[in-house]
Design goal:
Blueprint: H1 2-28, H2 35-60, H3 69-87, H4 92-117
Helix pairs in contact: 1-2, 1-4, 2-3, 2-4, 3-4
Length: 118
């Protein structure tokens, strides 16, 4: 189960970095995001939720991270991907920027969490 948590952690980082970079290109070029990009953002959010779920299962099985900061990074990453759904403005361009930033924050926190978990 710990190996699964590590693999999903790498997926969190990779998918969210790609989503943030592609979204940034759309934002800078003033383009409407393609439907495939929206699916990529959703996939990034799903892997963050899956990572949190596996982490909770590990906690239930009495596995603990060596550094307590690991839990903070996971919780804040989860909050970061949920924030655009609640706080992003109705403007499509600004909303895109919120999702780009949320993906970037989730990737950064995933990387930090990966470092504190091993």
């Amino acid at each position: 189960m710990v190996e699964l948590h590590s693999v999903v952690g790498v997926l969190v980082i990779a998918v969210n970095v790609v989503a943030a970079l592609i979204g940034l290109v759309y934002y800078v070029r003033h383009r409407e995001p393609a439907r495939k990009y929206l699916h990529l953002v959703a996939l990034g959010q799903v892997v963050v939720v899956a990572q949190a779920a596996v982490g909770l299962l590990l906690l239930a099985g009495d596995f603990r991270a060596p550094d307590k900061l690991h839990y903070v990074y996971g919780g804040v990453a989860l909050a970061a991907i949920l924030s655009p759904w609640m706080y992003a403005p109705p403007s499509a361009r600004k909303r895109l920027l919120w999702f780009v930033c949320a993906s970037a924050v989730a990737a950064a926190l995933g990387a930090r969490g990966y470092m504190t978990g091993s």
